[in-house]
């Protein structure tokens, strides 16, 4: 897993997270809102790993080497729970009750916090949101809930008002291009096209760089004159 130092853009959010971890001033609920491919899951995973790290650096960065970090990297940290849903377009009230409400009353297995990450939280039904609201209103002291959304407005105002909102902005094309060239070894000209196509999303840029269809477009582009 990457570290905060490897995240492209979102410096203000990373600074906020690092400060909260260092000061042990963590909220019980967060909303990470941004377009698909903006890095919500990566930031949530790094945030969770840092909170649970047993040998955290002074700047709030997870060590990546302790038992908790190794478990988090392999997806087996018992106190970092990823909420899933069977129906493709809905997170049901049963999903929330089973995986969050009924589980959160059990104290952490081996860590200070018990962290729930809910991807696609804007797919929660009204009943699911109301069930989660009760937990957010009166959470155990060890609980941290992270809601990942593309459209935070789909959440109840009462949920939004009780969460710390972190909005992931579009990343500048030059940073996206630099990332593609340095990490995926994409040639300069192709990286420029991919960055433009991505419109500020690292996820879309990576898809573009590895897409065969787009690669054919790159190949068919006229060669620049020397």
Anisotropy-based shape? globular
Q: How many beta strands in the DSSP annotation?
A: 5
Give the SSE order as H and E letters: HEHHEHEHEHEHHHH
Q: What is the SS-derived class?
A: alpha/beta
Number of helices: 10
Largest sheet: 5 strands, parallel
Radius of gyration: 19 Å
- Which spans of ≥5 residues are poorly predicted at pLDDT below 50? 212-226
The side-by-side strand order for the widest beta sheet comes to: 2-3-4-1-5
Task: Give an account of the 3D structure.
The chain is of the alpha/beta class and 226 residues long. The protein contains 10 helices and 5 strands. The protein has a 5-stranded parallel sheet with strand order 2-3-4-1-5, sandwiched between helices. The chain is globular. The protein starts with 10 loop residues before the first helix and ends in a 6-residue tail after the last helix. Residues 212-226 have low confidence and may be disordered.
List keywords for this structure.
single chain, 226 residues, alpha/beta, 5-stranded parallel beta sheet, globular, disordered C terminus
Task: Give a topology summary.
Blueprint: H1 11-23, E1 29-33, H2 40-52, H3 67-73, E2 80-82, H4 93-104, E3 114-118, H5 126-137, E4 143-149, H6 157-160, E5 164-167, H7 173-183, H8 188-198, H9 202-210, H10 212-220
Parallel strand pairs: 1-4, 1-5, 2-3, 3-4
Helix pairs in contact: 1-2, 2-3, 4-5, 7-8, 7-9, 8-9
């Amino acid at each position: 897993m990457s570290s905060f130092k490897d995240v492209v853009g979102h410096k203000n959010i990373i600074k906020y997270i690092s400060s909260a971890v260092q000061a042990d001033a963590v909220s019980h609920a967060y909303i990470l809102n941004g377009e698909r491919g903006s890095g919500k899951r990566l930031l949530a995973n790094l945030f969770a790993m840092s909170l649970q790290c047993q040998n955290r650096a002074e700047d709030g960065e997870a060590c990546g080497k302790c038992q908790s970090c190794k478990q988090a990297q392999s997806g087996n940290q018992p106190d970092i729970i990823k909420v899933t849903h069977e129906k493709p377009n809905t997170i049901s009230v049963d999903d929330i009750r089973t995986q969050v409400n009924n589980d959160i009353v059990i104290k952490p297995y081996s860590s200070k916090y018990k962290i729930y990450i809910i991807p696609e939280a804007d797919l929660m039904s009204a009943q699911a949101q109301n069930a989660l609201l009760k937990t957010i209103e009166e959470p155990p002291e060890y609980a941290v809930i992270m809601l990942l959304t593309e459209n935070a407005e789909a959440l109840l105002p009462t949920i939004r008002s009780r969460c710390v909102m972190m909005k992931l902005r579009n990343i500048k094309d030059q940073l996206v291009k630099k990332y593609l060239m340095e990490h995926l070894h994409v040639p300069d000209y192709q990286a420029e096209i991919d960055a433009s196509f991505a419109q500020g999303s690292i996820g879309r840029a990576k898809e573009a760089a590895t897409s065969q269809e787009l690669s054919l477009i790159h190949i068919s582009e006229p060669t620049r004159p020397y």
